Each structure stands twice: as C-alpha cells, then as structure tokens.
User: What shape does this take?
Amino acid sequence: MIRKAGIFSLALVLGLSLAVLPARAQFYTMGADPGGLHWRSIETPTYRVIYPQGLDSLAHVYAVTMEQVAGSVGASAGFRPNAAYRRKMPVVLHAYTANANGQVTWTPHRVEMLTVPDAFAPEATPWPLQLALHESRHVAQMQYGAAKPFRWLNVLGGELAPGALAVLYCGPAFFEGDAVVAETALTAAGRGRAADFLEYYRVSFAAGDFRDYWRWRYGSARWYTPDYYHAGYLAVGGIRAHFDVPDLTARYYRRIADHHGFTLLNWDKTVREATGRAFGDAFAEVTAALQQTWAEDEAARAPFMPSAPVSAVPRRFAEYTGLTGVGEDLYAVRRGLTQPDQWVRISPDGQERRFELLGSYASDPSYSDATGRFYWSELVRDPRWPLRSYSVIRSSDGRQSKLLTHKTRYYTPQASDTEALLAVTEYPVEGGSRVAVLDLEDGRELLGRDAPDGMQVVETAWLDGKLYATALTGAGYGIYQIPLEAGDTAFRTLLAPGPFKIGGFVDPLDGQLLFECDLTGVNELYALAPDSGEAPRRLTNTRFGASDFMIQRDTLWYSVLQPEGRLIHKTALADLPSVPADFSAPAKYPFAEELSAGEPLPLDLNAPVEVSAPQPYSKLAHLFHLHSWLPLYFAYDSVDNLSLETLREDAGLGATAFFQNELGTTAGWLGYHAAVSDGVWRHSAHANFAFTGLYPVIEASLDFNDREALEYYSAAGPWPVLESKSRGIPALTGTVRTYIPWNFSSGGWLRGIVPSAKFIFSNDVYHQYLQKEELMPMHRTTLSLRGYVMQHTPDACAYPHFGIGAEVGYSFRWARDVISPSLYAYLYGYLPGVWETHGLRWSALLSRRLVGGAYSEPFANTAPRGFESAITRQLAAYRTQFKATLDYKLPLIHVDRALLGPVAYLRNFELTLHGDYSAFSSDREWGNLYSVGADLVAVLGNLLWIPYETRIGVSWNYNGGASFDAFAARNLPVQRHKVELVFSVEM
Assistant: This one.
C-alpha cells in the first residue's frame, strides 16, 4: 500500500511539473527583486497590480491595458481571464531588470511582467500591449482547470490541479501557439504578421523539408528547429484559419468539459471533429497551403537579384549577423548549435577567428573610426539580485575589452560618422524611452532627448552629423529625426509609422539612410533620403529575405537564411534593383486576416477602466500564502533525487501543504506522514522554508518523529565502531542554511561565488562513559565556499567547451572529541571533445579527516560510481581520501521520430564513457578502488504528457582496485559488475 501511494506521488509530481508558461519547474520563481524595495498595489475589476513604490504611472498603464484586453482575449478562448477565481489575479511588475519578458505562473497563480521593453527587433506592437495580450491569453487558458468539471480537484489540491491539467491536456506548444494567435488576431501586428517569425519554415518547405508536427515541436540534436512557439502557432493558428474554425480553442476546452474531464488525446479529437481530418493530416494540409502561398508570392516578386555565397556551409546550423567591415576584414556575430555566441573576424581568405565572446542580451557591435574600437550593449545582472540588472556599453579593439558605462540601461549603441560620439537608446525604470549621446572617451552623457509619450525608440543612426532613430508607437514602426540643437525637443517624422517591422540601420550611402524592413513579407533593404522629400526606395529583391546588410566599397554584404544556417552572401552594388516602395500597403501574411476575422470581440483600447487608488503593499503581511495542498505526503524538496528506492521515505500516506508569496521571495511546505516502521505506525511532521528577500538566502527545515532519537556509544572490536540505540523519544532534526549566490557573469562567461554555512541540529546524543557520564550533542556545522567560471553550453553540445569550478569546505560535529572534523577540496572542469558536439568533464576531490575523535563519517562521496553507499561510509574511516573522475559524453544515432504519436518522441541516443578512481590511506592502511563504465540513454523530447527532455537508459560499471578483494572478504557490498537503470527529467 505504501509503495502504491509512493508511485502515485511520483506520477502526480510529474503531472504537476508544468507550473509556468513557458514551461518551468514547479513553484518556479523568476528570482528576487532588490530586498530594499517598497511595494504598492492598485486594482481593476480583474487584476491586482503589485509594483515598486514610485512607479504609479507605469503601473497604471499596465493595469489599464490588461483590463482593456481581457474581454477580447477571452472571447475566442472560451474563458475570460480570471473568471474561475474569486480573488483578483495578482500581476507583479518587475521594473528593475534590463531584459524583457513575461510569464504566467500557477502555484501560486500570478502574472509576472518585466516592464522594460524589448530592445532588439521588437514586434510592431507597443510592449505593454504585446505583453498584456500574450500573458492575458495564458490567464484565460488556465481558467478551465478551476472551472467545471474540475472544481472538485481545486478543493482536493488547491492550485496544483490547474498545473497538472495543463500538462495532461495542453502543454507548452498549445499554450504559446494559441497566445501568438491572440497577438496576431487582435492587432495589426503580432508575431504572425512578422516576416521573421515563420521564415525558417518558408526556407525549409522550399527545400523540401516537410517535417511532421512532432519533429517541429520537439526538435533535433542535429537539425536546427525553431522553438515550440512556432510549431504551436502553425498547429493552432494554421488549423483555425485554414479550416475556418474561429472557436477552435474554445471547442478544445468545451470538449474536455463535455466529457466530464476525462478524454485522452483531446487535441487530436478536437481537430478531427472540427476539420474531419486526423491532426497529423490537418497539420500537413496547413503546411502544404503555406508552401503554396509562399511559392505564389515568390513567383510574383521574381526575378531576384544575383547573390553569391561567401560563407562555407557549416556542419551544424550557424548564423552570422551584425556584419561590419573594417579595412579588408569582415566582422560578424556567430551563433550556432555547437559554439557559444561569439564575435568573429573573417579575413579575405575566408579564415575565421574568434574576436570576442558575447554575453547575454547583447546588441550587434558598432565600429567607430574615431577610436578604432567596437561598441555594443550587454546585459549585466546585479551580483545578488536576479531581478535587478543593467544594460551597459562595452568596447573592444581586439586586444582589450572594457566597460564604457556602469549600471546603465543603454542599448544598441551607434558610433557617429563624424565625431567621437556614441548614440544609445535608454529605457528608464519608470517607463518611456530616450536617446542619449555619449562621449566615447569616458562614457559621459553629453545630450539626452526624451521620446514623446507612447513612443519606444529602438535604434539610432548617424548621417552627416545628424541623428535619426527607428521608433515604435501604437501605429507601428516609423523613422524620426532626433533634435540635437539646444532647446529643440521635437521628434520629426521621416517615415510615418505602420504595421511592419523595421530592423537595423545600415551605414549610410550617398546621403541616404539605409534600413531593413519586412514591408513586402520578407526582409529587404530600403533607402530614405531625409531632406529630399522623396518616397523610400527598395534596394534589394531576394527570394526569402535578407538581413544584416553592410556596404564595403562596391559590394553589398548580407546574411541569408537557408536550411544550414544564416550565411553571408554578397551582391555588387551595380546589380541592386532600386524601385519605389509604398509603405501605405504592407504585405498580407498567411492566416493573419482569417484569424482576425474570426475574433468575436475586437480590441477597444479606448474603453474606460476603473482603477483603484494606490495602496501600500506589506511584504510582511503577504509573507506566507498557502496555495496548494495534497491528501498525501510528498517531500517536495527531494524531487531532484526521487527514485523508486526513496519512495518509502519521500512519499506516502499523509498530507502536504505548500506556500509561496506573490513576490517569489518566500516558499516552503508543511507535511504530515504516516508510515509503518518496525510493524507499528509512525506519525511524523515536516516543514521546509526558504527566504530570498534578504541579502543572504535563508533556508530551514524541520523533521519530527520520522524515527526515534538515537543514543550513540562506542562498541569494542578490532575497528572503532559507533553503535546506537533508541532514546525512547521522537527524533527532532532541523537544518538551517544560509548562503549568498553571487553572480558576476558577463562577456560570455558565467562566473559566480557562493559562500555557505549550514547548521544541522538534532536531539541525537553521544553517551560518553569514560571519566564521567556525559551526553554530548551530535549537531553538525558545515562551512563552504564555491566558485566557478565557464562558458555557456551550446544547444547541441554535451557540456560547456571550457570551464572550471572549485569548492572548499570544513565540516564538524559538535561532539568533535568523538567524531573527527573534515576538510575537503573539490575541483572540476570542462574541455572540448574530439568532435564538436562531444565534451569532457573531469573532477578531483580531496577529503582530509583532521585530528580529533576516534570516529569519522562521510562528508563527501569518495567512492567510485558502481559502489554502494556503504562503501562511502567505510572510506570515511580513512584519514585521507581522494577521488578523480572523467566523463566523456557524446550524442549519437539521431532518430528524431515520434513513437506512437504523442506518447514519446525519441530525439537521439547519448553515450557517456566514464571512469572513477579513489585512493585512501590512514596510519595503518592504504588502498584504492576504481570503476570504469558507460551510460547509454535515449533522449526523449517528451514521455507521455511530460513536456520536458527525458532520459531513459542503463548504466554499467566494472569495479575493481587493490582493496576490492579485501572489502569483499569483510562482507562489504561490492560487486564486479553493476548495472542500474537511468531515468531523469530536466525541468
């Protein structure tokens, strides 16, 4: 009975793993805002918006926008946002981070919005509206989990129920694809009306690459695949538009209710009922219709200009963007499946050398003739607070990289064509945008211009000492001249805004501004003469579009997407077409008009909204928020180590309650566990608590009566043996850990330092019988310091190419006269493998027992893999212990096939060759053990309805060493061959 309860717990946890959209682990938090912030809140009929004090205007914009879109967003979803809940939906605004994002989280349910706008090629929709539409659709989607027929599950489990149902019936691709449909259908922009959103499908279909839905959804370790937002949009939006089923999403949810909450393969059956076709056939028909539409468009736009490839076709997908020419060399940002993001220099003979690693959320570089340096913006997070970050300006001359600005929110720098000046866009914390001009020598701001209300400046360009910018308004993208004269603050319109995307500026040519735009449905290069009064002209005509244009002497260089990557091409300037462009007639995109026509309730962004007066938000009063519970026991903090061997301890009969506050700084759980132990029932209580709102993180746990308290004593024998007996009272064990997760990542390198202190107390004692009887407490303290420096891991690689980390620690019992304290040092690192996707991981661990008590205990695992935990305890008796490991991991056998439809998707196999060596010594004895073996696992894109990468396989070890026979003679659990099953889920 306990085993069945444990297995049910495991299944339930896997089912509850989708707690965030996009998919995240259960009880996910984006991190903590600075601990010193004070908070306020305002309310609308649907939402309660929580925001940092002093940002009332910003909060009002988001509150009004969220309320205005709620009815329209819910009309075709079947549920109005938050309709199934009595409490108003919390919306938490994070304004101090420098990157743009948003998410809807369940357990507890809330919307989290990073209010800084997207700085790099945002959609042609203002950021508050874009975010409100997308995240509100997620809120609407999740309502079915709290409505009929599932309300009883909410009584049974609280907010866990909608999270579990989200995995069972929907999944990330459905959620995100449907949200992109809402963006597209309810505005004149949205991702479905942008050329770059489906461009890889366009290229692939033309090359004959018609993958089925599952291959587009779960991807490949070998072939590039856009993320599941794209596949989800084709599945939901494509079927809805192509088969004229405007209520497809509502039908999906209604069908679940009609079948009383029990209907397997509900999406497939909904599609069959709506279209008369199986889902796979319907999806194939959608892609065929797309290919026909694109082929007709290409025929209408032909003939295309001549284009010569420059880049060699890479073995794995790679992209070259941000092209810049300096002298004879070409510079580009290279991103790919097998290399970290980096900036490369390409010499005239085609040789490619790394110039600089790039950090996260980085802009393309801009070169200054005045200083001979490149400049770019890069996200740098606060060392302690994940939700406080900056966008700083870095520069490099190829020999030295340095920071030009510190703790700024500057983006997309552009060097002046006449002076040592740098133009940047800035997004202040309180909202809005501005243009700033910096001195290249010291980064001082020489001039600043605030953009008009409702305008987001995106990118700037210099032309003959004048400054211009692309900017985004409610009407879309436009081009404006930025006033530089004293007293002049008016932005002059050069190109009226419209529902198209304008990408990066290109270095000017013959007194004309050059810019990218997807006006024709693909991205092309356009020219605009600011003072001529003439209409813009289109300078290129390509089949699939192009980007990252750069002129060097008499040649236009640019990047072209093809199945193998976004590779560099060139065309002579003399071969460019130059035709007038009509910006009043943007391209029509497949499915978009049909989606808009099917919306039952258009947006009304002028609708009045009732907003309450701001109120203080007490962090203390909202510290604990009980959101979920289970009528069984589950030790949530053990989920990473949950296995069939630990089910008896970590899951079973009882009850569990979970709490987490709205700001994501407090989380924990309370549990009651009933289990049979030694033939009698034992009732235990457990608590776990974590708080990240102070500078050091504090974690605590408490366990009561999961066993009886122990009294340890010395037992006679040839070896010192520590025996124990029951004290006859319940055990009480607690842990308090505090640490500081400092993060100093920048410049393409992950860096961190983590000092930690851990104290474990219990009512276990040691009975000292020598000179006088004394009960000595068995409390334990561990102090450690960890640090690391490593590169990001490319998508198709097993490990980072380079990296190193270290940890040192000191651990001791309070009864140090009985149990010796220990020091340990751990070193690990990563190196490239023989092949580009392979990787090598190595480690070395040294543990030293200090002079003290007669007994020892393991503070680190020094036994080789393949040996039981009893061997680790045995090795702890030796004063010095050393362990070295090598792991060589290589992906192989790329299958990329769905097995039984949605049941499992087999991506590839993965082989890890590994070897461990342990040496140990004391005053009387030394020895060693080793193991060599391999893990062979199948890498699955999903398993059943678990929408996470899953590994299932087998691990084999051959064990030996000089001490192997001696340990076997002592009847210790050693065996030559050890075979174990491998199962892991990456959440």
